[in-house]
Every structure is written in C-alpha cells, then in structure tokens.
Amino acid sequence: MLTKSNYLSAHQCYKRLWLEKKSDLEKPDLTRSELQRIKEGNQVGELARVARGEGTLIQGLGWEGVIAATQAAIESGETRIFEAAFRFKDYAVRLDVIEKNASSWNILEVKASTSIKSEHIADISFQKHVAELAGLKIGECSILLLNKAYTTDGSKDLFANKNVDEQIAEYLLDLDCELGAINRVIKAELCPEVHVSSHCKKPDKCSYYELCWKNIPQQSIFSIPRLHKDKERELITEKAIAIIDLPFDFELSHNQRKYVDSVINGKTEIDRRGIREKLDELNYPIYFFDVESCQKAVPEISQVHPYDQICFQFSCHVLEESGAVRHYEFLQTDNSDPRLPFLEKLFQVIGATGSIVVYNQQFEIGRFRDLAVWFPEYRERLTKLIERVWDQMIIFKDYYMHPDFNGSISIKAVLPVLVPKLSYKDLAISRGDEASAIWNEMVQLDESEEKEKVIQALKEYCKLDTLAMVEIHRVLEGL
C-alpha cells in the first residue's frame, strides 16, 4: 500500500521509498529536535480542529476500520470530518479536514508552517487524487497555515486559509506518470540506484542518509561552497565525485575554484594582511558572545509570532588587553518568559565600550533587533550593541581557507583544524537545534538532579561556542 507518507518519501528519492517498503533496515532513532517538531505538528493539528468547529474525528487503528468509520460519517450526514480515510486499490490517504459544500467536499490540509512549500502541494495533490479515485467529489483545496501575524492577544486568527487549486491542477498533470514510476520501484526486486546529492536533506534529512553517504569522501563535490544543483548533477553524471576527480576546466566561481585548488594542492590559503586589517578593527575589552534561542509554532508569550526566535541563553567570554579572560553566562531555567531576564543580564555583562565578537553576525544581530521591537525601552542600547558587533566568520569567508574545513566555514568545521584540543564531540549536547529542544523539555521539569544535569549540559555547550571563538582569535593573532 502506498500512503501519503510513502508518496512523499518517493517524491524525495525512489531509493528511500524502496528501502522503506522492501528492506528490513532499522531507521535511526529520531533526534530530540525531530521529536519536538512532531509534537508541535500534532499540537497544530489539534488546534486546527478546534478552530474549524464541531466535526467528527475518525479514530482507530487499521485502514479497514478508519475507512469504514469515514464512510459511516459521510452517510450519516456529517458535514465536517477530521482525519477522514480513503483507499483506492493500493493507494490510501488520511485527510486532515474535509468539509461539505453543497454537493462536494472541500479539503483543508493543516501545516505547521507560515508559508506554502513545494512538498505541501505534492502532499495535498496526492490526497485529492486518491480521494477522488475512491469516489469523493472534491470542491476546493486549501492549506491551513499558521498566521504570521498571530499573537496571544487574540487580535489575529492562528490560521490563514490559502487556496491551492491552481497549483494542484498543474501538479496533477504529471502525477499519473509519477505514480507509474513509483509502482515500478515498489515491485522491483533490486533497490534503485540513486546517487546521493543535495536532495538527501530536502525537505528533511533522509532516514537512510548515513547509509547512502558512508562511502562519499569528505572532500567531495558536495563540499564545494554554494555549488548549483545543475552543476552538481552534471558532475554526478560524469562520475566526478571526489574533488581530485573534478575536470580541470570545469566552470566554478572564484571562491569555489580557490577551495578546489586548496584541496587538490593540499595548501592552506591565508591572507595575513587582510586578517590583520580585520583584527585591527577590534577594541578591548573584546566580548566573545553567543546566543541560544528557540522557536515555537504556537507562541505562548505576549507579542511573539509563530516561529519567532526567543533567546533563552547566552555565553560571553571577555578578553582584556592584558590577556585576562572572564566568563559570564545566562540560562533561563523555568518556563516563564526569558526575554527580559536575558536583556537585564546582557547589559550587566556587556559594558559600554569594546567589540562584540560573534560567529555569523546575522543571527545575533537579528535577535537584538527582535528584542528592540519587544522592549522599546532598550532599543537605543541594543542599537549601540549592534554597531559594535564584529563577525569572526568573515575571516574564514574572505581571508582563510583550509582544505580540512571541507568547504564549510561553520565554527564546528573551523575549530578542530585551528584548535584541535577543543571538541564538541564529548559534550552531552553538540548542536544548536538539540539544545533548543532539550531546553524546552528542561524548563518543564521540577527541581531535581536530572534537571541540574541538563542545565549543566546546556551551559557547557554554549560556553564552548564562545571559548572556541577566543581560542580561534588567539590563533589568528599569532599568524
């Protein structure tokens, strides 16, 4: 049976579909951040049902049961049905909401998103196709999105209804052909050969990512910065996967060619003069600063919109001109609004003068601007902080290229090359998205030894981010 989940897997990659349907490979456990997204998606679905009003929710296990329950609800005269189930031959779907409109039914697909994505159109198109084959007359199709303007004050609705009939009509033109190819994949005895590429992480990282990528060298065409998917596809066709196999005359941008040449020649490219000029912009004391934030699909605190970034933690190492270093930190440990305590601690730690060093200034500046909107009494002080921000990442974008960065300029790529004594590998938390999910869980806990362990793990992760910047700065100063 091909469900909409299977169909979306096939839409991403036929190999993924075949492995889901035909192999006995175990999928890796979901990460904390993935579990958090699923939880939020379920919450959004429940709120959508409340927003639409009275209706029949189809519950139960097994396709036969839920299909029969759906038909019974239709025959009894129900005009709004949640999680309706339909099957035609080997295709089966469950629709978030269907609502009776004269002699037809409207489909509403609920998404925990503020904008329509291509995979949403694929999803609802498949649902409409199967429901119609099963005998349901369909009127309009819409996607219920989270309203960007929603806040807890209730002045705006949580959901925005977007009609997608035009997009579906265009998508359906090729659906029969695609389903034919999918059916052939499912019936095949051998797993289809699909080469890895950027599609392995779009729209989400595939469950079989590690399996498929295990033999791909780190220094591959996929590490070339901002390589267009068309050029990527061309190189895959030519079987030029490792950087060393790249055709000498293959067209690349200046920065891409610099990276490829550094890998092939095994040489580090350092513009010492450029680095020195950038470092001379810094003023003591230097504040090495990093923020952790979380996003919620449905905000719970005032003035906040869906998926606004809420700062809940920061770490700051302060480097004096004498070489002395002090460390400060903030972490909200209960489930109250962290924004104002964050701000108050921020201005206790960061003085009136000195550079504020971050890694990828777009993020920290964005958080300062958000806070200035929410707390206008701090706007002038936050604006002055923004004027002092200095981005360490620019060094590795413009002046320092090492083949062992593997085409990345993230701090997690740079740190093990420049400062091998420091590592994220041994930390209980090693990624920002995991930190956010774990923080959301931690603030719900009662005071306990378990909660204290999580608090310490969060502090260690954020602290390493700013310590890493300090140590990288010392390496750069020594060039």
Quick rundown:
The chain has 479 residues and is of the alpha/beta class. It has helices at 4-12, 14-22, 32-52, 63-75, 118-133, 165-172, 175-187, 209-213, 229-237, 254-265, 272-279, 339-349, 361-374, 379-387, 393-398, 411-418, 432-442, 449-477, and strands at 2-3, 56-57, 80-88, 91-101, 104-110, 138-146, 159-163, 269-270, 286-295, 309-319, 325-331, 356-358, 389-391, 400-401.
What can you see in these coordinates?
The structure is a single chain. This protein is of the alpha/beta class and 479 residues long. It folds into 3 domains: 186 residues, Lambda Exonuclease, Chain A (Alpha-Beta Complex), CATH 3.90.320; 47 residues, no CATH class; 212 residues, Ribonuclease H-like superfamily/Ribonuclease H (Nucleotidyltransferase, domain 5), CATH 3.30.420. The strands form 3 sheets. Strands 1, 2, 3, 4, 5, 6 and 7 form a 7-stranded mixed beta sheet that branches. A 5-stranded mixed beta sheet has the order 11-10-9-12-13, sandwiched between helices. Strand 2, helix 4 and strand 3 form a beta-alpha-beta unit.
